[in-house]
Design a protein that fits this description.
Helices cover 20% and strands 40% of the residues. It is built from one helix and nine strands, in the order αβββββββββ. The strands form two sheets. Strands 1, 2, 3, 8 and 9 form a five-stranded antiparallel β-sheet that branches. The protein has a four-stranded antiparallel β-sheet with strand order 4-5-6-7, with no helix packed on it. It is globular and about 45 Å long.
Length: 176
């Protein structure tokens, strides 16, 4: 009887060691895949000077539907000041200096199952209290979110944050 228990116990031990090594191998493969597959999400920051004074809308901004929303309709002129590009990696902050002396800090929290991005951003003046404390937004790939309200000389500063690329619309396969 004692010999039988020893054999059973030894069998459990071998099964445990084998399952642990298979699990470890699968975990290593998953870690390698995620390390290779996550070089970062391409992003860009649209830095816009906007004014209520009559003027022109920068042609580069005329294709942004969100800037046609009634929240932005009172701006009679908009000029794209810069469009810095960056790579966002989950858990690593990206910082960008702004023309009004402040700095925006972006943090990609995670990529959601549906492909959207959960992002936090804050705006502060270096070595000062935050102007805009951390705000969390969900971004669809390629679709920017805009934040306005900061002053820069005589203009308002509008910031657009875009991550990833917009997915192309599927072509219609059937004609009516």
């Amino acid at each position: 009887m004692k010999k039988r228990h020893t054999v059973i116990w030894f069998g459990y031990l071998i099964a445990f060691v084998l399952s642990a090594s298979v699990h470890a191998g699968a975990q290593d493969k998953a870690n390698n895949k995620s390390a290779k597959a996550s070089p970062g999400v391409p992003g860009e920051l649209l830095v816009i000077a906007a004014s209520e004074k009559e003027g022109k809308i920068d042609p580069a901004l005329s294709k942004e539907p969100a800037l046609k929303h009634r929240s932005f309709q009172f701006y009679k002129s908009m000029k794209l000041l810069s469009r810095p590009k960056f790579q966002c990696v989950a858990g690593k902050a990206v910082e960008q200096d702004l023309p009004n002396g402040r700095r925006i800090r972006l943090l990609l929290d995670k990529t959601l199952e549906d492909g959207r991005y959960q992002v936090q951003f804050s705006i502060n003046k270096p070595n000062k209290k935050d102007y805009l404390r951390s705000v969390q937004v969900i971004l669809a790939p390629g679709v920017p979110v805009f934040q306005a309200g900061q002053r820069m000389r005589d203009d308002d500063l509008i910031l657009g944050i875009r991550l990833g690329e917009r997915k192309a619309k599927k072509a219609e396969t059937s004609k009516k």
